[in-house]
Design brief:
The chain contains 8 helices and 9 strands. By secondary structure, it is an alpha/beta fold. The chain folds into 2 domains: about 180 residues, P-loop containing nucleotide triphosphate hydrolases (Rossmann fold), CATH 3.40.50.300; about 25 residues. The strands form 2 sheets. A 5-stranded parallel β-sheet has the order 2-7-1-8-9, with helices on both faces. The structure holds guanosine-5'-monophosphate (5GP). Guanosine-5'-monophosphate binds next to strand 5, strand 6 and helix 4.
Amino acid sequence: MPFPLVLSAPSGGGKTTIARALLAAREDLGYSISATTRHRRPEEKEGKDYFFLSRDEFRRRVNAGEFVEWAEYGGQLYGTLKSELEAVLASGRHAVLDIEIQGARAVRKLYAEAVLVFIVPPSADELMKRLGGSAGTRGATLRRRLRRAIEELGEALEYDYVVVNAERTEAVAEVAAILDAESRRPRRNPELENDLAELGREIRALADSLGQSAEA
Ligand code: 5GP
């Protein structure tokens, strides 16, 4: 049964890259496109990376009960649309959510079957490099992001899994392994009981036929 796969990370943790790589590599995953009030970045596309909404429109949709969860982050509003998440799950794919911690908590409450993965940078230096990577990041902004990263790291222990993103390909493989292991839990496979019963019947038939030939 498909489930929500929540990826969180401190800013600079690299979760968006990991989410993209996973989605490109696996057909059993779909992306739950969030809504946000922040401005679109040049490389982003409306309806692919986010649904970019005005604050008024966002509020209207909150009031209309269209969000599974929403949160304020860095002064902007972000939220998971029920229609998006449910459409991915209804298509039979696990839904990848790239969301921050408050959102992850809310999803966990509403979807007990959700799997929460926290992605951490391998070192302070590497985090600094990734955060400072975008040219022109001012000292104050960088300091604010580093402080927020410290706070966010404190929440990692609430998650089901923590993956260290030292090397992207390896981190993607680790999240894929988590997905595969989780999909094999009996409670996620309602058809398993019948399949096992069928296998049992086949084994019994085999044993019976052996018994008969031994007796014969
Ligand atoms: P960014 O502006 O860099 O795309 O995202 C900022 C933060 O908002 C990231 O931590 C991202 O995971 C989070 N975010 C994106 N979409 C959602 C959402 O739908 N709900 C919540 N709670 N956080 C989100």
